[in-house]
Prior knowledge:
With 231 residues, the protein is an alpha/beta fold. The protein has helices spanning 49-56, 79-89, 105-115, 123-133, 149-161, 179-196, and strands at 7-18, 21-29, 32-33, 38-42, 64-69, 72-73, 90-93, 167-171, 199-204, 215-220, 223-229. It has one domain: P-loop containing nucleotide triphosphate hydrolases (Rossmann fold, 3-Layer(aba) Sandwich), CATH 3.40.50. The mean pLDDT is 95.
Amino acid sequence: MATSPIIRTEGLCRDFETGGEVVHALKDVNITIQPGTLTILRGRSGSGKTTLINLLGALDRPTKGRIFFNDSDITKMSESNRDDLRKTDMGFVFQSVALISLMSAYENVEFGLRISEYDKKLRKARTEECLSFVGLSKRMGHRPHELSGGEQQRVAIARAIAHNPKVLFADEPTAELDTGMGLQVMKVFRDLVEKEGVTIVMTTHDPNMMELGDRVYTLEDGEIIDCDERI
Ligand SMILES: Nc1ncnc2c1ncn2[C@@H]1O[C@H](COP(=O)(O)OP(=O)(O)O)[C@@H](O)[C@H]1O
Ligand SMILES: [Mg+2]
């Protein structure tokens, strides 16, 4: 039996106007994201991947079209409802790891939980659990500069999942890593999907990562030109 999608878009368009010229960054994008799967948005630089993931993550609004998150149209929500949705149901990981350099791995994750107003009594255990999940139990006291790029990205993932989001969005999370470290990050993503039931949407242009997606959408000039299903 088919489960209903956690995210669905209808005729999504996003135009940008710069200096009197209009860029059609997304044109009539219709995609569905199934819960508990890893979806990859692939495409060349400039194809619209970041624009699309920002719309799905309620960080931006479309010019036209609709985005349903669990059947509610988030394009119609107020900014404060969208903030709440992001804070409770969504987590974000970006290409450049934005850890706080003066804080240890532990403090970076715990700080995220403080911001999301996670129950104070449970923060320590949850922080340790998340760092252990990404394989960094032994590195909790290290500051970012004492960690490799791949380890830093895994701290960022621990921070992004600590508040138990339903969906994790990751924009080019492996772009600044070598293939080995990139595959370690992908292994953490697969574990999150399979063991924790998290839904992951990520962008990449790295062919090495493609086979680890359950569904791979290919973007070209703002249009979805292919959908490849692995499950
Ligand atoms: N804020 C913006 N203002 C103007 N043009 C933009 C903006 N963001 C993206 N674009 C344009 O939209 C297109 C898609 O960009 P983007 O989504 O960043 O692609 P990708 O992430 O696949 O590299 C590009 O042509 C880019 O120049
Ligand atoms: Mg991008």
